[in-house]
Amino acid sequence: MPRCAGRRARPSPAADHALGGAVTAALCGSWDHEGPCHFPHHTSTRADGDELVVTIRFDAPDDEVDEVRRLIVGAVRTGTLVGSDGVTNRWHAVD
Question: How many CB atoms lie within 10 A of CB 92?
Fold first, then answer.
């Protein structure tokens, strides 16, 4: 059953893509992984003033939903991800 989690963040430039990478790394072990995601998901962002509204749609068995939500919150709260270009992207979790 599809689920949804939402967070807010204040990003540095281009951090919107890094937020999705951080969520993928948390749920799949790496943002650059082989094969399908362990927990199929999609991360989208939209601007709201100087903040991003981050929406993560995911699929997980009922008994793993709380763990997936914990991983998502942790990923957004980390506030940093080094991209494939070696650039460190930063953001600040708002909630």
Answer: 14
The C-alpha atoms of residue 68 and residue 70 are separated, in whole angstroms, by: 5
Strand partners, 56: 5, 43
Percent of the chain whose pLDDT exceeds 70: 89
**What CATH number corresponds to the domain at position 44?**
3.30.70
Only one residue has tokens 């362990």, namely 38
Residue carrying the six token digits 């903040």 = 51
pLDDT, one tens digit per residue, over 66-88 is: 999 999 999 999 989 988 888 88
Which amino acid, one-letter code, is at 25?
A
Domain that holds residue 83: 2-93
